[in-house]
Amino acid sequence: MTPPRLVIIGQITVDDVVPAEPGPWQRQLGGNALYAAAGARLVLPEGEIGIVSRLGSGIDDAIEGDLQERGFRTAIVRKAEPHLVEWFLYDPDGGRRTVPKGGRFRAIQDPETERETYLAALEAISPAPEDVPDTWRTAPAFHLAPQVWKRHAAHLDAIPPGALITLDPSPHYAGEWDLDMFARMVRDGLTFLPSEQELCGLIRSAASPADAPSVAKSLVQRLGQHAVVKLGATGALYWQDRGRHAPPATAAVADPTGAGDGFCGAFAAARALGWAHTACVEAAIVAGAMMVECRGVAEAHDLSRAQFEDRLAAYRAHGRSEDHRSAEHA
């Protein structure tokens, strides 16, 4: 069987969402694999996108069938361990944070033990290389959504040379990396897609937190087209002959959840189609803007591909990338 054009490897999560305004909480699906797929499907037909993930016990078996009904190809492995469920808490100012839910976390007092327990739960729902179907291993492009480093390292070893890889570093490990560590990981076909948050280790080593923009620029200048830095509401930094700043796309923000994953999915899909580097960044920015207009992953998967194409054309007509020297305060 022909492999998908793009294989997305990441997590499916179950979130108990507590709204900022008074009201009942709601359980909903989420996770970086599903949001990345929502961004990718704006560029690629669902049938050319494969999703590799895991589901622990206590989670509805209908999830995989629902994805297949939407046209995605899936490889979802069931595990006996309880699936990680988190409280997703929204603040009135638009901020949000997560709190792991369940007795295995409530009884923990020591912060380091709590962190280790949480990372073990994340690892359990993060797919391993053996979860990728044999017929998918020759896919031309892979996107590695945020996972623990053990999983990312194993997938990098397992993906054949010559494949295109986009890697969204997890803040759980990228916060400890410096420029040299990013540079040592570079290989042909690999592009890192970190956010400023995921570069916090680099920022801590800078002279002051105000140096965050210059740290991001340094990464792009050091890695060239092997890195694109997501800047959220202010666009992205990337390399095209020189360091450039891509402006944000207009968006009516409803929920910022999934914006970075949607950005990555669209970038990976455009790259799998052989688009030019700048065109991939543009597609990613527009897809990320459309993600923040959605409340929940179901709305993200209902976004119109035709509307995406119209908004991408409008962005290209009006948005202009600037080099780093003219975007010092962007």
Give the CATH level 1 class: Alpha Beta
Taken from the alpha-carbon principal axes, the silhouette is globular
Number of domains: 1
- Average pLDDT works out at 88
Number of strands: 14
CATH fold node name: UDP-N-acetylmuramoyl-L-alanine:D-glutamate ligase
What's the architecture, going by CATH? Answer: 3-Layer(aba) Sandwich
Biggest β-sheet strands, sense, barrel: 6 strands, parallel
Quaternary arrangement of the chains shown? single chain
Q: How much of the sequence is in beta strands?
A: 15-25%
CATH homolog superfamily = Ribokinase
Rg from alpha-carbon coordinates: 19 Å
Structure description:
- The protein is an alpha/beta fold and 330 residues long.
- The protein has a single domain (6-326), classed as 3-Layer(aba) Sandwich (UDP-N-acetylmuramoyl-L-alanine:D-glutamate ligase).
- It is 37% helix and 21% strand.
- It has helices at 32-40, 62-69, 103-106, 111-124, 149-158, 171-174, 179-185, 200-204, 212-223, 259-272, 277-291, 297-301, 305-318, and strands at residues 6-9, 13-18, 26-30, 49-57, 73-82, 85-90, 96-101, 141-144, 164-167, 190-192, 229-230, 236-239, 243-246, 322-323.
- A six-stranded parallel β-sheet has the order 5-4-1-8-9-10, sandwiched between helices. Strands 3-2-6-7 form a four-stranded mixed β-sheet.
- Mean pLDDT is 88; it is low at 206-210 and 326-330.
